[in-house]
Fold this protein.
Amino acid sequence: MVTESEIKKVLKERKVLYGYKQAKKALKGKKVESIITASDKFNREFKDCMKFEGSPKQLGIICGKPFGISVLTVLKE
């Protein structure tokens, strides 16, 4: 489980992508360090993902976005 403070730290230090489609594209290019999901429906598709216990709307607020985010992709440096 990923906490709000861990997500904020990642946002400051790493490059991230928002959304399911961006995560799928990044996985094809093997540029992904980790994936954080806020929706149970994506847990099966992204097998090694980390779970955020809040809603997609809450994840969007943490990320400073005016919309919900179901999948947050952390890219390799």
